[in-house]
Amino acid sequence: MAAPVAAAPPSGRGRARPAGEVDPRSVALAVSQEEMLRDPIGRRALRTLGRAILLVVVLAAACALAWKLGFERAEKNAHERLMQRQIEEQAKTKPQTPRPPATLAADALAALERALKAEQVGDAVAADAALAEVQTLSPTTPGVLFRRAKFAVRRRDYQAAEGFLAEAAQRGERLGEARNLRALLAATQGQPELAETMFREAADADPFDGRTFYCWGETLRKNGQLLRAVEKLDGALRRDFDRADRGLYELKLAFARLELAPEGEYAREVNAETGKSDLPAPRLAVGAAARLLGGDNAGGAALLARLRPAAPPWLWREILVDPLIRRFGADPAVAAELRPQ
């Protein structure tokens, strides 16, 4: 009788495998061992070392950045503390002058009005005397010292002018204008090197102040340094292109260009347009200067005659005192047109 056949387990771990069938787990294990044998230990070590080096580099860069930011913050805080300390020290040492009054007293205001009226009619002596009265009644009134300094320069009392400017500087009043005026004073006294130094200091203190470059250019022009004068006057125009002084700057720049090349292309252009009937007053003045520099004194005088009734007050004042026009004042025809109105 045949022996009974045992029932085979349905599936899973206990299932008997037919002869010749390979267990997949043993195959996977064999493959893993083979791959490990193909990947040497040295290569795995290099990869691990590379990762470690990269991590160290990243950490070092992060530490360096944090140190830099911290150092810059500390340096900025130290600089701010130093600047604050300097400001406090300057405040302690700065002379304490009384503050200007909010409004002038009635007697000081009346003296100021007298000064302005005297200056308007050309009485510099009476104007300065009235300003001296204002200074006595209200010593801190802004602008009085500068006005008196200008009158002192006109009467060639340079020592008094220096005193007024020094007092204004001590008060910290209008320092830019004080530098310009002191530079002009040095030029008037025949000290061109000192004037050059002071103009440069004024330009360094406020490089956008066109008035500094105008005064600098006019000083150079009067000293015959025409190329540099053109440069500085052009600089004044480029800085104050929207100010009321633009017309004055344009006039003096045109005069300097004509003096630099009396027979050049610019002079020919100016002479060509002088025949126009609707020429503006400033261009009439430039045309008169071009004719005079070109040797046509009669033509220059004729243009001055056209200019005289049409010129605004500021333009005619500049014509009367400009060295280019005054150079031809000995000519009878020119002198007749420059006589006081």
In short:
This protein is mostly helical and 341 residues long.
Query: Could you report the average pLDDT, rounded to the nearest whole number?
Result: 79
- Residue share in β-strands: under 5%
Question: How many runs of DSSP E, i.e. beta strands?
Answer: 0
Major sheet attributes:
none
- The arrangement of helices and strands along the chain is HHHHHHHHHHHHHHHHH
Number of helices: 17
Roughly how many Å apart are the termini? 161 Å
Low-confidence stretches: 1-9
Computed structural class? mainly alpha
User: Helical amount among residues, as a percent range?
Assistant: over 70%
Query: How does the overall form come out from the CA principal axes?
Result: flat
The gyration radius over C-alpha positions equals 44 Å
Can you put this structure into words, describing what you see?
72% of the residues lie in helices and 0% in strands. By secondary structure, it is mostly helical. The longest helix is centred in the first third of the chain and has 53 residues, at 41-93. The termini are far apart. The protein is built from 17 helices and no strands. The protein has helices spanning 24-38, 41-93, 106-120, 124-137, 144-154, 158-171, 175-188, 192-205, 210-222, 226-239, 246-260, 265-273, 281-293, 297-310, 313-321, 323-326, 332-337. The model is unreliable at 1-9 (pLDDT under 50). α12 (265-273) crosses α13 (281-293).
